[in-house]
Amino acid sequence: MPSGASRLLCVPSRTAVSSSSRYIEAMSKILDQAVEAVRGLSAEEQDDIAREMRSLALEAQGFKSVPGGYALRVSSPWMFGRASHYLATDVQIQEVTAARNTMADVALAALVSAIAVVVVLGLPAGFLGRRAADYALLWLVQAGITVLVYVQCCRWLAFRRLRPILARLPCTKE
């Protein structure tokens, strides 16, 4: 099969397979060296590395280390609302992480946005002219409504799951 045809059919070429396997081997070697280097450290140094890695992971999830725990920024349930900040402990961080959006929430938000599309398409077609620009405008409005409904639905579902946990957390200015 010609190389152009394999790209069209998403069939990996021999060079792509060999370069990806070389990449995997190289990364595996680097990780093995890193593990050996960490094993050579003292227990105190390993604990310091573990604390630093946890801190970086929590920061990536939206937690900021502050005296007394971690500051958590929670978006408003409304798209243009002001965010609130709460003080959380290690146990509460686990609860918040577990309560974040799940695949069921994402599926529900997608369903609601699909219903919004059906509602927009169900509008009387009499207000449209017969020009292509009118139909393009309809599709543009439909796409915008779909995105806005999806984002707003995800916010509501996330806030609904977090509300019982947030009721027990003290507010902070951090």
Describe the structure.
- The chain is mostly helical.
- It has one domain.
- Helices cover 66% and strands 9% of the residues.
- The protein is built from 6 helices and 3 strands.
- Strands 1-2-3 form a 3-stranded antiparallel beta sheet.
- Helix 4 packs antiparallel against helix 6 and helix 5 packs antiparallel against helix 6.
- It starts with a helix and ends in an 8-residue tail after the last helix.
- The model has no long low-confidence stretch (mean pLDDT 78).
List keywords for this structure.
about 65% helix, 3-stranded antiparallel β-sheet, mainly alpha, about 170 residues, flat
Note the topology.
Blueprint: H1 3-8, H2 14-39, H3 43-60, E1 63-66, E2 69-74, E3 84-88, H4 90-99, H5 103-121, H6 132-166
Antiparallel strand pairs: 1-2, 2-3
Helix pairs in contact: 4-6, 5-6
Class derived from helix and strand content: mainly alpha
Give the SSE order as H and E letters: HHHEEEHHH
Which ranges are low-confidence, i.e. pLDDT below 50, for 5 or more consecutive residues?
Answer: none
Distance between the termini: 61 Å
The fraction of residues in strands falls at 5-15%
Q: Kindly state the percentage of residues in helix.
A: 55-70%
Q: How many E-type strands?
A: 3
Shape summary: flat
Count of the domains: 1
If you average the pLDDT, what whole number results? 78
Task: Work out the helix count.
Answer: 6
Radius of gyration: 25 Å
Specify the biggest β-sheet.
3 strands, antiparallel
**Widest β-sheet, arrangement of strands:** 1-2-3
